[in-house]
Amino acid sequence: MASSRCCVSSLLNCFLICVILWSHLSDAVFDKSNRRPNIVLILTDDLDIAMGGLSPLSKTKKLIGDAGITFTNAFVASPLCCPSRASILTGKYPHNHHVINNTLEGNCSSKAWQKTEEAHTFPALLKNFANYQTFFAGKYLNQYGHSEAGGVEHVPPGWSYWVGLERNSKYYNYTLSVNGKAQKHGADYSKDYLTDVLANMSLDFLQYKSNFQPFFMMVSTPAPHSPWTAAPQYQGSFNNTKAPRDPNFNVHGKDKHWLIRQAKTPMSNSSVQFLDDAFRKRWRTLLSVDDLVEKIVQRLEDRGELDNTYIIFTSDNGYHTGQFSLPLDKRQLYEFDIRVPLMVRGPNIKPNQTSQMLVANVDLGPTILDIAGYNVNKTQMDGMSFLPIMMNSSSWRTDILVEYEGEGRNVSDPACPLLGPGVAECFPDCVCEDSYNNTYACVRTISPSANLQYCEFDDNEVFVEVYNVTADPYQLTNIAKTIDQEVLEKMNHRLMILQSCSGQSCRTTLFIHKLMLNIKV
């Protein structure tokens, strides 16, 4: 009997060893084309495209852009961090996810957001229904970690591994939530510089994750957001660089909304020096992002996983430094604030491609779900998968919606008492970047026959701005009063449709023909 038990035990052990060996061999031997792809999303903070924001990112352009596809017409649904990030996570326009600004009261990482939207984000769908292991590191939403929103103990659903920054972007002296436990960091570059910490944690995940599930990894860097703290080795870079002096730099927006008209033109020398200094600092912080991208790509290559991994690089909004005499910020409806970089490499994407198709950040979630094999039509997302574009399909939408709800203070800024209440972000020289009635919605249209932007403000004037971006790429001339009335009515009608759309109705394509023939500039 003892001999029989010993024999059975030996056979069982042999069987288990064979199963383990077979599982390892099958993972390595079976055709990799049958394996679901991995996905990496690298999200920067306030990185523009219009002012040369990709210039410091030479390695990123080579490793992602040159190795795949670059989208030249990529836009955000709202040019502000929290609403834009909510659109990325949910695939929805702001009027459907209800995050309107960077405050708790504006639904940024609020309890209401957690109850209504957070469980339905694309990472939650990847983890719960597509069996992906998911990893997050970096800035999430601006109010994440707030005591009134669950503190750092709150780990959003959908993440297998969670490293979330408490509140807004910093480079030193911050707190991370590591799977719900606070991890405090100081000001020692070797241990605490946030961009490098995120890079190292990402590399650790790639090294120690399971090899038997596909993965999704989202790395959300602080750069190039203020306070623009560069790594020590890069603090002397770009010393002779200045903000671009494009045609819309330091000029008066005389035919624009009153908030733009209130900017002081020409800007003071001190304001110009301030924005030039900020511009240089922004670029310096990006050099560490470039290093992060290189490290992640190299680790994927070392592990033999690069060929089966999609890597997406983008930003949550653009930025301006001196355009229309606004010193520096985002929030405005113009190309410099709403247009962002977008580059993708991955399986079956041919290198050195450029696409002029119109994509928005509400499309990121649907695209990632599509890559993972999840049916986007099962969701309530407003965006569309642009995976077919990357595979050379030509049929696509021609317009998107951009929405922003302005913010203002209830009381006057003590530094600018003459301005009165209702404005915000009034620096330097008491030039305000925002106000309560800086609330607008735009239709951004790009088709073979039209490259237009139509915007309406929710103010007493119902102020309208319209730009023919082909003829006027710097948006110097508002043609709202000279454009053909029929075109104006069509754009107004399309805006009303998009402002009330939800899910599938937002994905309905609209082809605008012969609009350009009716434009009088």
UniProtKB/TrEMBL annotation:
Coiled coil: none
Localization per record: Lysosome
Keyword Glycosyltransferase: no
Chief site of localization: other
Cofactor: Ca(2+)
Residues the record lists as 3-oxoalanine (Cys) modifications: 81
GO MF terms, alphabetically ordered: glycosaminoglycan binding; metal ion binding; N-acetylglucosamine-6-sulfatase activity
Highest taxon of source: Eukaryota
Gene3D superfamilies: Alkaline Phosphatase, subunit A (3.40.720.10)
Entry keyword Signal: yes
Gene Ontology cellular-component terms listed: lysosome
Signal peptide region: 1-28
EC number from the UniProt entry: 3.1.6.14
PANTHER family reported for this sequence: N-ACETYLGLUCOSAMINE-6-SULFATASE (PTHR43108:SF5), N-ACETYLGLUCOSAMINE-6-SULFATASE FAMILY MEMBER (PTHR43108)
Family named by the database record: Belongs to the sulfatase family.
Name this protein carries in UniProt: N-acetylglucosamine-6-sulfatase
Protein source organism: Anabas testudineus
